Amino acid sequence: MSQDNTNFVSYIETRIQPNNTLYSRFHIGNFSTGQALTIANTLRRILLSQIPSFVISKVEIEGVRHEFDSILDIKENIIDVILNLKNLHIYSNQNEIVNIQQHESIASINFLGPGAITAKDIQFPDGLLPVYLNSPIATCSDKGHFSARLFIKYIDPLIQMNQFESTRRNQLIVNTISQPILQVNYTIKKTNVSGSEYISLEIWSNGSVDPKLALQYTLENCTRSFFTFTTLARKLTTPII
Questions:
Q1: Could you report the per-residue pLDDT of 35-71, keeping only the tens digit for each?
Q2: What domains are there in the chain, each with its CATH number?
Q3: Among 32, 39, 63, 198, which residue's Cβ finds the most Cβ atoms within 10 Å?
Q4: d(CA 152, CA 57)
Q5: Which positions ≥6 away from 194 have C-beta within 8 Å?
Q6: Residue 125 gets which letter from DSSP?
Q7: Is residue 207 within 8 Å of residue 91, measured between CB atoms?
Q8: In whole angstroms, what is the distance from residue 44 CA to residue 140 CA?
Q9: Residues 6+ apart with CB under 8 A from 134
Q10: What is the pLDDT, as a whole number, of residue 240?
Q11: CA–CA separation, 196 vs 30, rounded Å?
Q12: How does strand 2-3 pair with strand 8-16?
């Protein structure tokens, strides 16, 4: 808990859900009556749409030229393989979410059949790991061979909206978006002090981002944004019409 005489952010509970998502609940206050709802709405919108994460942006599959191609001895078609990669969640062992320039890392798969190819068969670069080791990718026959390179980016949704993903020959776009927060609920509650209230905030993550880090990132970004406008307002010398 972080707390002073009037304000607090309390980490109430966290747990792993049956479907392997992460759940956390927080209390944030104190606010004047009516103020908490405005803050809670803002936090919810940012959490659901603006949290950066690592995603697979492109893939190169040996022997594949386009998404309608096929691979001998692989059960799935290429579109299904791309969809499986799109649903593969990646986390980093870093202990914070940061505003950094987009950079690209490369993971690889070199699988000899028979068997099911899953996330545990991917050779990731240092610091990156799959959230679920059993995330399916493809199914390989007895003498089949599957070789691929996965291009991983740390995507900031605000930057991603204005950028076009370029590819080289034989690279396929996975078209994954950064949306690690699955659900956000909040309740406005009264405190023991008259005219004061606080937010009870619940966050569900797909496992690639800790809800606690997502909330910290959101609060810091909100503060930074509003502070920027405060400094601009101080420089006003003429009325705005």
A1: 999 999 999 999 999 999 999 999 999 988 888 888 8
A2: 2-50+180-230 (3.30.1360.10), 53-173 (2.170.120.12)
A3: 198
A4: 6
A5: none
A6: P
A7: yes
A8: 42
A9: 118, 119, 120
A10: 54
A11: 6
A12: antiparallel
- CA-to-CA separations, 172 to 82, 99, 124, 139, 210, in angstroms, rounded: 8, 27, 19, 19, 30
Amino acid in the structure at residue 213:
L
Candidates 219, 221, 214, 222; CA nearest to 22 is: 214
Write the CB contacts of 145 (distance below 8 Å, at least 6 apart in sequence). Answer: 62, 73, 111, 112, 113
The total of other beta-carbon atoms located within 10 Å of residue 8's CB is: 15
Q: In angstroms, rounded to a whole number, what is the distance separating the alpha carbons of residues 198 and 186?
A: 10
DSSP 40-59: HHHHHHHHHH---EEEEEEE
- Token match 């899953």: residue? 118
Q: With b meaning 16 or more CB within 10 Å and e meaning fewer, what string describes 89-110? A: bbbeeeeebeeeeeeebebebe
End-to-end CA distance of the chain: 45
Residue keyed to tokens 């991983």: 152
Tokens 């956390």 map to which residue? 24
**What letter would DSSP give residue 96?**
S
Closest CA to 179 of 202, 200, 151, 160: 160
Determine the distance from the C-alpha atom of residue 163 to the mean position of all C-alpha atoms in its chain, rounded to a whole number: 18
Q: How many residues does the chain have?
A: 241
**How far is residue 107's CA from residue 73's CA, in Å, rounded to a whole number?**
22
